[in-house]
Amino acid sequence: MTEHDVRTWVAQTCEGLADLLSDDTWDAPSLCAGWQVRHVVAHVTMPARLTPAQFGAEMAAARGDFGVLSDTVAARDAALPPAELLAALRSPQLHDWQPPGGGAAGALNHAVVHSLDVTVALGAPPTAPAPALTAVLDQLADGTVFGLDLTGVQLEATDGNWGSGEGDVVRADSGELVALLAGRTLPDGRALPRVSAR
Known about the structure:
Layout: H1 3-20, H2 37-44, H3 46-49, H4 52-61, H5 66-77, H6 82-89, H7 92-96, H8 103-122, H9 130-140, E1 153-157, E2 163-164, E3 168-172, H10 174-181
Parallel strand pairs: 1-3
Antiparallel strand pairs: 1-2
């Protein structure tokens, strides 16, 4: 996976998501608890809409808590005109962005997981290309990123040859597996166990 690959995959994922959205999808629920599709798009496009100075001000207002910042910006910017949010999804600035400390892998994870928050909830095919889905599955397969307990769990993609782990088999398509590994609950209620607090 090269940085060129990542930029291409991120662009395809975001452009595909922009192509998918229509007037009747913006208010649909997403896989992110309490967020509609418009909130997810407002969140994922922050790097294209906020300057570093604006982001710093938002972080200061949130007292350094990125979760608070995300909720605040999503709640506010979800009210932006859809055309503005779509333009941000198509922005080369978003396609080139890499999170501080996360690099290319973090950028790919961000775009793919949040696109699936929309497409899986809508029952639509992933907008991320298959190699991007596989790359993110490989990133998330140890369960540490989202605090999952994958002990005794075997994951198998029904649309390819990807698999990981040993134990009770969880089968789903690649997009659904990414969503599960990102700690999401699927529309049919399937979820992976969290690590127990000690």
